[in-house]
Write a structure and sequence with these properties.
CATH architecture of the largest domain: Beta Barrel
Shape: elongated
Distance between the termini: 43 Å
Largest sheet: 8 strands, antiparallel, barrel
Strand order of the largest sheet: 1-5-4-3-2-6-7-8
Number of domains: 2
Order of helices and strands: EHEEEEHEEEHHHEEHEHEEH
Number of strands: 13
CATH topology of the largest domain: Hypothetical Protein Pfu-838710-001
CATH class of the largest domain: Mainly Beta
Strand content: 25-35%
């Protein structure tokens, strides 16, 4: 385990990543390239604990504490290299529980001792992070000054600043009942690829698992009508082929003026993989028309738990 390290950090919404990149390069930042990161957050009593899986690169367990203020803040953290990410993730998931999974594409630039992160976060959008890495024993005056200079160079304004972590923002969206933005896009895109020559009623469905994976499917009709397949069934098939898991959220989308809900058979199919309180968002191609739950769509249901014992 490394010794405790500290950063002076700043997070902001970034409405124009291309312009931010241009400004950073003009300020003398060195472009270190693109990374794909998946951060699994675990429930802990103090601070935050996440497993970061990175491509290119490896896996690191990160324990950190940081205020949630929407301004510059000091983060104290420890890093532990991980050889068996799958094993550690499974063990911590069972022991602690997963609170959130953050998936992002990160462009990394380096300016003096400051890491500039241009992030595209699944379900949230575009963000900018500054991390001034402190030397051991630093009084942080130099690091705060570096962040202030970069903030001016990159034109980061007060109304763009964000508090908390990406995990907090994702959880906040879920509590507000808003659908995962990427999941909504996947369902609508699937509807556009549906095979529905007989009904001419395309439907797309997308599911998100509790560990952040997303799968989509479209309705596939057949001249022998009983051989057709609903969009929800197609999405569940993709989920199973992708490794299975518990469904945390569902979107069903169709270009219809009427509310489109899963049929009775698909409600039972969803029951096999989703709890009663899983949100199901019913959307057209412009807006979410209603959010319900599996329990509301399929009351007094029969599921896998009835075989227990």
């Amino acid at each position: 385990m490394t010794d405790p390290s500290r950063n002076v950090e700043l997070k902001a919404h970034d409405p124009d990543p291309a312009r931010t990149l241009e400004r950073a390069l003009a300020a003398g930042a060195d472009d270190r390239g693109l990374l794909r990161q998946r951060d699994t957050y675990f429930a802990v009593a103090h601070g935050r604990l996440k497993l970061r899986e990175e491509e290119p690169g490896g896996a690191t367990l990160i324990a950190y504490e940081r205020p949630d203020a929407a301004t510059e803040r000091v983060s104290s953290y420890r890093l532990v290299p991980v050889a068996d990410a799958d094993g550690l993730r499974a063990a911590l998931s069972v022991a602690n529980g997963v609170t959130a999974v953050v998936v992002k594409r990160r462009r990394v630039l380096l300016w003096e001792a400051v890491r500039i992160h241009l992030d595209e976060v699944r379900g949230l959008g575009s963000f900018l992070e500054l991390e001034a890495v402190a030397q051991p024993g630093s009084d942080l005056v130099r690091e705060r000054a570096q962040v202030a200079r970069l903030r001016e160079a990159l034109d980061i304004r007060d109304d763009a600043l964000r508090e908390g972590s990406y995990a907090d923002a994702l959880l906040g969206s879920e509590r507000a009942g808003e659908p995962d933005a990427e999941l909504l896009g996947l369902a609508r895109a699937a509807a556009g690829r549906a095979y529905a020559p007989y009904s001419r009623f395309p439907v797309g469905a997308a599911v998100r698992t509790t560990d952040g994976r997303r799968y989509a499917g479209a309705n596939v009709e057949n001249a022998a009508y009983p051989q057709g397949q609903c969009a929800e069934a197609s999405a569940i098939g993709a989920l199973v082929a992708g490794g299975g898991g518990t469904i945390a959220e569902v979107v069903v989308a169709a270009p219809s003026r009427e509310l489109v809900t899963p049929c009775g058979g698909c409600r039972q199919r969803l029951r096999e993989f989703a709890p009663d309180d899983a949100p199901i968002h019913l959307a057209d191609l412009e807006r979410v028309r209603r959010t319900t739950t599996l329990g509301e769509l399929l009351p007094l249901s029969f599921g896998p738990g009835h075989f227990a014992g």
